[in-house]
Structures are given as structure tokens and as C-alpha cells.
Write a structure and sequence with these properties.
The structure is a homodimer. Chain A is built from nine helices and no strands. By secondary structure, chain A is mostly helical. The interface between A and B is large, with 49 and 49 residues. Chain B binds a DNA duplex (30 and 30 nucleotides) through α1 and α3.
DNA sequence: GGGGCCAACTTGACAGCGTTAACCTAACGT
DNA sequence: ACGTTAGGTTAACGCTGTCAAGTTGGCCCC
């Protein structure tokens, strides 16, 4: 077991590595807290550092820059979203699964507004994917791909109308409708200009409308 | 005509006022250009000022702060959007009008991405409305209200299914679906993670799906 | 077991940001 | 002719993300 050439899981070198990982994690935690409390742009490197009693510069030994740090946080939350949706995967009927996934997605977005904003409402140079924390086309980590799969299953079962052939287009259709409700509510919910209705109620209605609008008509 | 108590449209005082308005307008123009070229957060007060050969401080004699300046720009574009949609008001069938409005809206958003981002994708403390440049509930200036009116007309004509009663909820349903497509495309169109389909094609499809999903079923 | 080394972390700074106080000046009203 | 004021400038403040250089403490190897 304790050969000389083993990949170190014990010993001083391993401890140092573990310590490094731990401070990395502490940085991420502190960043997430401030991020959620005050929003992205109000979260400064100095504030993150001082919360864990480090110097701002220390962060740069663990992350290339602020955007990388946030991108990594973002990727973690995205995986959390994916695994939340995954738990709905058990439902048989693809359409019902789309409904439930949509509701779970919207709830996630409305509960984690800061993260949602950074994930989907901010053009961010680099993708979440290239942190290697999220495996593209793995349904357990890539929520979009999971939706595409579900839609594809619906297509194969002939549940959708004949003008819908492309699983990506159809997935983007569903996703966009939900994202529109969630993101508008996040960006403008305090704007007196719009007389907002209860967002979850409208979202449920929206999903039903989308399903009814794409479903194949009964041959009766 | 030239009474002593007239509201001055000539004379030195009026000229000064006109000059002030003019430099105000030049600030707005310069801001818009940079804003469109480089995006919101990359547009600095100093850059705006130097483009019109002024000092940064000069801007603060015309606008309270950066956000106010951008909010005013935003309000102007919002009026432009409203009047673009207005030109579609001539179409008789409310549903067809919704279709055409949706397409025009999406085209506007995809063509004016920087403005769209600031208008609808950014939580912005103050509303566009409180600059008094956009009159709420005036369909010629308030594009949302124009949509509500159109939806209301459809409701009165009994074009929608019985579960749709609330013109605001229905308007938010349509708007959100469009906003979702436009905003996701603006934020993530360069992200290799998603295999994007042609946005306008998907938007047209989306509108048709929404209309089919909300329309009252033929009594045949 | 002591010398070299390297990684984690700090110090101190830089450039640029939005914004403000103090001043300056030319044109206005009286 | 003169005080006032509006429109503009100068210089600065406090903040941001970021980096070059220095410090320190523990590991590795001879």
C-alpha cells in the first residue's frame, strides 16, 4: 500500500495539497456569500479576502482573476441545478417531465437570483464549461443537455407536432420561455412600470401553453 | 407677439437654454456611440467627455450620475421601440398583430444589443419611467402597455381560451417568451456550450407556439 | 541535519474608475 | 457698471482589479 511511487494521499506533500484545496474552497465560500448578499459587481476582491482574513493578492494564487473565480462558482451552481433537475428524471411521460423540470428550473432561478444573473444574464467571455467542472453532454451535470435528451425522447415517441423535428430548437424554445420569465422578474421585479403577476403562477401557465402549442393534435 | 412676459423663445436667455440643451444632446450622442461600440460597463465618463472635448466633470452639470445618463438614453431607445411597434398597430386581427409585434420586438433587440441589455437585462435601481421621457400607459411610448392593449382586444373578441382572463398575465406570457430568446442569445450566443439555432427562426416558431397554446379551440 | 528551494502569502504600488469640492470666467439681469 | 450665476475646469478622494517584488516557513535531498 505505502509504496514509494504511490500518488500521495498521505504525507506532508499531500497535506500541503489538501491545505491549498481548503483555502481555495474557503475563498469560494466567502465569495459565494458576499456574492449572494450584495450581488456580483458589489463583491470586491478585497471584501472576499478580508472575510477569510487574507490579503487580496492571495486570491490570485488560486484564481487567475475575478471572472475566473466567479465562473467557477457559477459552474458549481450549475451542477447543483443539473442534479436538482436530475431528480425529476424518474418521471415516465417526457412532457410531464418537461413540466416538472421547468417548474424546478424556475424555482431555482428565483431562489438564487445572484447566481442566476451571473449564469445566464451576463455575457461572460469564457464559458462555464471550460473550467472542466461541468462536463458538457453529461446529463448529470449539463442541465441543458438533460433537457435536450428529454425533448428528444418526446420526439421519438411522436408526442410533438410534425413541424418540430429539431431537438435543440425545441429545447431552446422551452428553455427561453422559462428564462424569459425568470430573468425579467429578476431584473425588473421592483420596477413599478409593470404590474407583475405572481411569477410561479405565470410560469406554470407558460409551460402549459408551450406544451399545448407543441404537442401533436389528437387524431380524434 | 413680442410681449415682455412671453415664455422666451428668443433672446439671450433662450439662446443659453438652447445651448445647454445642445451640449446635453451631444453628451447623450457621444454616450450612445461608445455605449453601442463597447457596451455599458466599458463606457467611462472620461471617454464620453473626451469624445466631445469636455472634462468629465462637465457631464455632472447635465446629469446626476452615470446611471441617470444611461437611463435617459435607455428611455429614448424605449420610445423608439414603442413607435416601431406602433407602426404595426394598423393590423386588424389582434393575434396577427401580436405575431408581427413579437417579430419586430425581437429584431429590435437583436439589432440593438447593448441598449437591450441595459433596458431589460440589468437591474437598475431607478425605472426608465421616472425620467418623464416615457409616459407610462401611453401606447405610443410605452411598448408594454401597447402589448397589453392588443392582448385585451383579443380577450374581448374571445380569441383566447377560457383559462386566460388577465390581460397582464397574458402579455407577460408573450413578452417573456420573446425576451427569453433575445436575452439568452445576447448573453450566450458565443458560448460553444449551446448549439444555437437561427434565433429569428426559433422566435417565429415560438410566437406561433404561444398563439396556438393560448388560442381558444375551434368549436368545430 | 543543514543548505537550497519552492510555494503560499504579504507589502506596496499602479492605473483607471465614478464622483466631488473649490475655483475660474464670461455672460446675464438690473 | 456691478453683483450673480451658469457652465466649465483643476485637482483630488476613495474605490476598484491587478501585479512585481519581497518575505517566510516548511519540504526535499545530500
Amino acid at each position: 500500500m505505502s509504496s514509494l511511487t504511490e500518488t500521495a494521499t498521505a504525507g506532508p506533500a499531500a497535506r500541503r495539497l489538501r491545505q491549498k484545496e481548503e483555502t481555495r474552497a474557503r475563498i469560494l465560500d466567502a465569495a459565494r456569500e458576499l456574492f449572494v448578499e450584495n450581488g456580483v459587481e458589489a463583491t470586491t476582491m478585497r471584501a472576499i479576502a478580508s472575510r477569510i482574513e487574507y490579503t487580496p493578492t492571495a486570491i490570485y494564487h488560486h484564481f487567475r482573476d475575478k471572472e475566473s473565480l466567479l465562473a467557477e462558482l457559477c459552474a458549481l451552481d450549475f451542477r447543483a441545478l443539473a442534479s436538482a433537475l436530475q431528480r425529476i428524471g424518474a418521471i415516465d411521460d417526457p412532457l410531464e417531465r418537461v413540466r416538472r423540470m421547468g417548474i424546478a428550473y424556475a424555482e431555482f432561478g428565483l431562489k438564487n437570483r445572484s447566481q442566476y444573473r451571473f449564469m445566464f444574464m451576463t455575457p461572460s467571455g469564457q464559458s462555464m464549461m471550460d473550467s472542466n467542472l461541468v462536463q458538457k453532454n453529461n446529463p448529470e451535470e449539463d442541465a441543458y443537455f438533460f433537457l435536450v435528451q428529454t425533448v428528444e425522447e418526446g420526439l421519438k415517441k411522436g408526442l410533438f407536432g410534425p413541424e418540430f423535428q429539431d431537438e435543440h430548437q425545441l429545447a431552446q424554445l422551452f428553455w427561453s420561455a422559462l428564462h424569459g420569465m425568470v430573468s425579467l422578474h429578476i431584473a425588473k421585479c421592483n420596477d413599478p412600470w409593470i404590474e407583475w403577476r405572481d411569477p410561479m403562477a405565470t410560469i406554470r401557465l407558460s409551460i402549459d401553453v408551450m406544451i399545448r402549442g407543441t404537442r401533436r393534435h389528437h387524431p380524434a
